[in-house]
Design goal:
The protein is an alpha/beta fold. It is 37% helix and 15% strand. The chain is built from 20 helices and 17 strands. It has a four-stranded parallel β-sheet. A four-stranded parallel β-sheet has the order 14-15-16-17, with helices on one face. β4, α4 and β5 form a beta-alpha-beta unit. It starts with 15 loop residues before the first helix and ends in a 15-residue tail after the last helix.
Length: 526
Amino acid sequence: MRKKKPGRRSPNADWQAIRAAERPVERFSAHGRYTLALGYANSYHIGMSSLGFQRVYELIQRTPEWTCERFFTDGTGPPLSVESDTAISNFGAIAFSISFEEDYVNLLQMLTRARVPLRRSQRGAGDPLIIVGGSCAMINPLTLSEFVDVFPLGAAENILPPLLAALSEEESHEAVLERLAGVEGFYVPAHHRPEEGQLDAKLKKLELSAEQMRQPGNLPTTAIVTPHTEFADKFLLEMSRGCPEKCRYCWATFGMGQFRWHPTEFILAAIERARSVTDQLGFVATAVGDHPDIEHILLEANAMGFRTAVSSVRIPAVTPGVLSALRASGDRSITLAPETGSDSLRVKLNKPIPNSVLYDKVRLIFRHRLTNLKLYFIVGLPEETMEDVEAILSVAARCREIMLEELAPTGVIGHIHLGVNILIPKPYTGYQRETMEDVAVLRARLELLRRGVAALPNVSLSTMAIRQAVWQSYITKAGSDAADVLEAAAAGESTAALLRRFADKIEPVVFASEPGKLRWHFLRTG
């Protein structure tokens, strides 16, 4: 892939104000011999909230002779780059990062706006190569395989060097694809045909190992701080990967390998780098609180003058030291994930934490004067009964009682929010062979929760739409024959209409169990 073609400007999207608000942690040259289009199939607000996307941006910019330009879904005309207003179709290759299946449709709509043919079989030498990495590529790339030329499988630190080398050294699309098809960690649909029984031993996910995480330069952090994200003005740092638990519903705990963490000295050095651009930090990971030095890191950050926040914390990792450090930094919110209301069902999830422990941790949270508690739950679990769903309300009521007992004497009343999702049986989890719960059953269980929460002051509820859960369950598990359905969705057909018109395709994937080897098992974890 040679240098990009001269760009053209359009009044449909103006990134000037966005650029003016950005505060790069490190300045990179805007000029390189090679330039890659780096796309996120959602808005700037969402895309720049992704630490993974920012990490890819930084790694490309650090590669000699390379630079990249960012693209998002904002606007209605041809997608234009944040950096130079260059049209996305002017690049020889477009690398998308996709972490959520719902963004598949956004990806196709971006290509349509750019007048790039959707199917790889319809694209020619003058069209860009379409590359898709991120969590979705590692969960099940088959759903997008009719549209995508290359799926890098693994951590950016491992897959970017061979990818950029192929793009810069090969003269044609065909040569790039042939080369990458022989490299471990890349799925190339034109060369690998797992649905036809043609497998390749090199189709392995290349995760970042514990040894690599102990090497300098492999700590993902924010590259550009901006107010226009979910984490406004925060400098994000990855604390660890994987999870000590093996909850049966969770892809991250299976797909990301065993729990490992970044060295404390690397984290503290990264915090020092953030001084020039912000005084706010966000520590992110599947299990933030399980870093062995979490309390020390939070206290050091406070001593350096930073305000800190953490993503959700595992219930056992809630300690007085962590809470004191968060409170001292100005944070008033914390998120826990009980997942169910009953001890017995939680044990079946392989998450044997009793409600008594949960209540002790909730009391600690409010005793340390944190005032906002978010609790994540799942409905539609295998073996779940209506009594298990009622138990969610009992947990919420007891947590509310604890909140009032601890906070009322201070004159402050806090808030508890229940975030309830529907189980989507993901590939590579303990529930990958399970089906989604019947729609009528789900409707009754969600209605029970709505009525119950309405009777609890200072408690709120948000739930996943059942229709959206069916759609996500389908595209998570589908094969390449999902192409027609995705094209219809990208053309604007509503989810309700799609579920009706393509019921013969969708319902067997969502509501019927598949015996034998599962379609996504051609990928090997590593």
